Structure formats: C-alpha cells, structure tokens
Amino acid sequence: MAHHHQGDHTDIDWAVMAPLLEAQAELFTPLYERVMAWLAEEVPGPGLIVDTGSGPGVVSCLFAEAFPGARIVAVDGSEPLLERARARAERLGLADRFSTVAGELPEVLDDLPYPADLLWASNSLHHLGDQRAALTAFAGRLAPGGTLALLEGGLPARFLPRDIGIGRPGLQARIDAVEAEWFARMRTALPGAVAETEDWPALLTAAGLKHTGTRSFLLDLPAPVTDRARAYVVASLTRLREALEEDLDREDRATLDRLLDPEDEVSVHHRSDVFVLKAHTVYTAARTA
C-alpha cells in the first residue's frame, strides 16, 4: 500500500522502504509459513489468492509456493514495489501463476479477474481511512465460501533487553509509546479517516462475514542472532530513529545513535544480546453466501 500525505512527517515512501520490507518478510518466513499451514486448513485448494497491500511480493510468492494449485494476484498502490514482486516471482519460477494489479485499495479490487477464494490483508487495512467500508469491499470480492484473512495488531517487536547498559532502561517501551502516537496521527491524516474500535472480529461480522478464527504467531530468534537478523534490527532501528526524530527525547536519541554507530562497541552491530521477538495476530472470516 502506498499513501502519501503532503507536508506530513508521517509520510511513508514505500519504494525507499522496499529493501527493509523485503528483509523483514524474508526473516519472518517461518512465521508466515505457519500462518499458511493454518489457512490451508480453512481454505483447501483455493483457485485465486489475492494479497492486498502486497508490497514487494515476498509473502505473495510464499502463498504461491504453499498453494501450488492457486493463481496469485499481488495488489498494491506502489508500482515500484510491484515491479519487485514480479521480478521475485520470475526468479522463483512462479511467474505463470503470478500477476499484479496496481491501484488504491479498496477500489482497485474491482479490477480482479474473478472473486477470490482467499483474500490476505496484512497490515494494509490500517492505511485506509474508512476501515469498516474497506472490509465490506474486501468481503464483496470473495467467492462464496471464500475467506478473508486479516493480519492486524499483535505485539511490538523486541530487539534488546530492558536495560542495555546505556541510557535509561526501557528504551523500546518508550519507542513503542512514541510510535503509537505517530500511528494515531497517521490514521487521522488519512483521506476519509473514520475512528473505529479495533474489534476486528466484530468488524468482520459487520462486513457480512462469519468470523472463523483468531490466532497469533510468534517469531522468536534468540540471541545470538544471525547476520541477516542483525541487519534487520539495524534497519528497523534506523527507520524508527529517522521517523521519530521529533518525538523522542534527547537522551533516547543519543542512545539510539550509539546503538546504530558501527564504530561503537555497544551498538547493535556488535552486541551479543540482540534478539528478535515479535507476534502477529491473524483473524479469519468466511463468506457464507
């Protein structure tokens, strides 16, 4: 999904973020594979899987591998991200079952060739102003018996112990609080923004679907982490440092600067206590008629 709000420092340049999005999705592959094994129990043999807000297509391609009989359509508002998705599908030998549709959700779903048996919305819904209306639109693009799988919420990522020996203890908890304020501003700035209680099963029911399940999936990469996981932590903290520049206090900015300085022995480039712990929650709901 690509949404840009002129003059608002909550802007997200998805093309610039593409490498981080790819690295994160690749690192989280074990988690997504468990999600797909669970979805396969609810949606056996889907003909069409639609990945809404697909980004660079890592998860879209995982769907193609997990469901070899399905056609996959990656939908996103950013053409540069979809270019990366098509290139990935080509590299993996999946191009014959893989296509993309560029445009803004939910309207772009009208361009789908036929209704979806499984529609996957991973952290894309919260970029839409009217989430209730978007869920209704998503539901309208499901085939009879089709399933909408919504990934929203879960738990914030943790990379470091509470006390890291520099700065005030509890750095990541404070970052979470600042990021929550940023998220609220981002939501308010969206076109047509509607405040909504984030009771996802209730909202799925209001969209005319039958809520069929909720499950959380954990990515647990304990210290010492691999180089790939460490690079993801560096990239994630760098993005947070840049995005939250105006909101963090001076001491926490200084701590982050040390954590991100490859020449500093206490940085995440060198620390032995870096880990990755993150939970994603997925809600499923079926079209019964």
TrEMBL record:
GO annotation terms (biological process): methylation
UniProt-listed PANTHER family: TRANS-ACONITATE 2-METHYLTRANSFERASE, TRANS-ACONITATE 2-METHYLTRANSFERASE-RELATED
Keywords: Methyltransferase, Transferase
Keyword Transferase: yes
Pfam family, one: Methyltransf_12
Organism: Streptomyces chiangmaiensis
Protein name: Methyltransferase
Listed GO MF terms: methyltransferase activity
InterPro entries: Methyltransf_12, SAM-dependent_MTases_sf
Organism superkingdom: Bacteria
